[in-house]
Amino acid sequence: MCGAVCLQGGLIGPFRFEGTVTGINYLTMLADSIFPAIRALYGNDDFYFQLDGAPPHYHRDVRAYLDQNLSGQWIGRRGPIEFPARSPDLTPLDFFLWGTVKDGVYKRKPRNLDILWNEIQAVCREISLDVLIRCTESVVTRTQNCIDAADIRCEENKLKITELIKSNRRISIKDLSSETGLSVRLCHQIVTKDLDMIRTSSKFVPRILTEEQKGYDPETKRQSSQWIERGEPKPKKARFTKSKVKTLLVTFFDINGLGHHEFIPFGRAINQEVYLGIMRSLREAVRLKRSERWQNNDWILHVDNARPHTSPCCFAVLGQAFNHTDPSSTLFSRLSPQ
Description:
Blueprint: E1 2-7, E2 10-16, H1 23-42, E3 49-50, H2 60-69, E4 74-75, H3 92-108, H4 113-126, H5 129-152, H6 155-167, H7 173-180, H8 184-194, E5 197-200, E6 203-205, E7 226-229, E8 236-238, E9 248-254, E10 257-264, H9 272-289, H10 291-296, H11 312-321
Parallel strand pairs: 3-4, 6-8
Antiparallel strand pairs: 1-2, 5-7, 9-10
């Protein structure tokens, strides 16, 4: 673990901690290293000492030491100047130093902790004073940008975004940003926090499509999402589902191809009556499509032993109208083309 202090007059540190940083060893570092180095740079001039709110900085003894030595001139949790929580964009160490040091050290690929510490010190020494000055001065600009961002979330922009959403509930945050000229992040904050809106998909409900609607390509769940106020019911959308109707097809064929086929009406099972009607249609189809075989009586109907085939009534019709052999004595499922 290492730490540092970034000032306009230069960089103090880095400092190496063995193990976990606690309030006690942080206080020791303040008293023995940091404050003497700051006084050496600034003398008795006034300055402000900024902390980022880490737990060691919040230690009771640390705050007492800062109140005693920098009364009213330190920034941090429960300090004379409160530091906003989770604000790394306002801390020079966070928005500049640690990223720069990490990039420089990783290029050198240190192999152990001692080499790593030496490389960290080397990279810190390479940072020029001019860069540190620009870095600390940018804190003022960054703070002002935060203040301006709060002002941008004004009633005028809220009203503009509200009108855009009312005119098009499916508008995206990126489109809102391009229409208003505000950042994507700011638009998202206004919509979700200030206007308290959420984006939700339409609720699917079953509906029978008309003939005109059957050619319509339905939207996906993501395409149907739109902005609604929290607590408002979801919009409804017809569900597009394929038919689950199963159709039975009865076919008869020989070496010359398909001789006869029939579709069984929906909801009907193949029972004795249905099969008898199929046999009558088949007999007529053979007479018309296979007339030569019909005249020479040179054809045989091959049926298996399914229940409709083996009923007494069907046996009687098959024996009279067709050249039929009783298959009920043995199962020949592997010898049947079907």
